[in-house]
Amino acid sequence: PEADFPIALYGMRPEWLAFLRGYGLTGLSGGPEVQFQGWDPQGQPKLAFDQADACLARAVQLGFKAPVIGYGGPGNIAGLSYENVEAVFAEWGRPAGLAAEESARRILRAWQDHARSKGWPEILWPMADEPRVREQTERILASIAFLKKAAPWIRLSGSYSVDRSPGDPILTQALFRALDASLLNEYGPKDFEEAASSGKFLGIYNQGPDRFTFGAYLFVEHSRGVRAFVQWHSFATHGYQFWDLDGREPDDGLVVLTSRGLKPTLALERIRMGLWDLRTLTALEKMQPGHALLEGLKSTLSPGRHEKPSSLDLDVLRQTALAILKP
Could you give the CA distance from residue 28 to residue 71 in angstroms, rounded to a whole number? Predict the structure, then answer.
């Protein structure tokens, strides 16, 4: 069986979904946003859903798992960032004579009604992208509080790292407490404990585009409580894909655009191998004879420590698992 939780790449374009699904990815991140287009004469918001509808219908058809990790779409409303959200809704509401909170309530209710009517999967709205300073985090927390007041049902997420060393609590666990879902880059045993005790959704991101990460490592971390994984990036290029010095940062791309269509990088092929490892280990979990192998694997990997032990041979691990599955 494949993983029953979302495993995605950032920046998954709608026209690439079938290709990436074929490589074993089960989650969706990136795609068309909803456009706010003002108010009708009855004071109801006008929202353009067409592109998001098409993308999400295709994702459901292909069997992508919920929740959608809404980083740059799909489905969330364009123009809403992580900070100063109240001011945006105030500006949008002004032509209709609406205060910020009522503007937000009407727009988000219309969004919710449409999403339900179209059978959209659950979407985690992005509200943090690696904030580094206290002032920025405080602005994000204010936006989270505003959205939760206007639309208590909305599911908010953020991507960041937790620093549990003594210091400013705003920069340690404030986001974890305020968000419904946290995708962590650096994390440890205490994060698993807090997620379990609080019922918070815990995911991880950017652990590595390789076989070990998408296979044995993800299997073990999922068994500890990780409920989603997203890796950078489908195609974040600024110039020539294989020359990092012609853009503002290295060109990350797990696919290659060619005159003959979409092609995989070697890293994407390694990811596919890892996802087959994950499927094999998941199948083994249901068989009593495989428990000793799996417990041994878990004991070699510490929570949040992304280090492949030199003694771990992934080919041997898969062959051993298959021998148990097919005696």
Answer: 10
Residues 6+ apart with CB under 8 A from 182: 157, 158, 160, 162, 175, 176, 191, 195, 200, 201, 202, 203
pTM: 0.95
pLDDT (tens digit, 9 = 90+) per residue, 139-183?
Answer: 999 999 999 999 999 999 999 987 777 677 777 789 999 999 999
What is the token pair recorded at 122? 């659950």
The rounded radius of gyration (Å) of the Cα atoms in the chain is 21
Structure tokens at 96: 């209709």
**Concatenated DSSP letters of 152-183:** TT--EEEEE----SSS-GGGTTHHHHH-SEEE
The whole-angstrom separation of Cα 161 and Cα 91 is 32
Are the CB atoms for 117 and 74 separated by under 8 Å?
Answer: no
Nearest to 274 by CA among 221, 327, 198: 221
Q: Which helix (H) or strand (E) holds 145?
A: helix 134-150
Query: 23 near 268, Cβ under 8 Å?
Result: yes
> Hey, which residues does 77 pair with through a beta bridge?
34
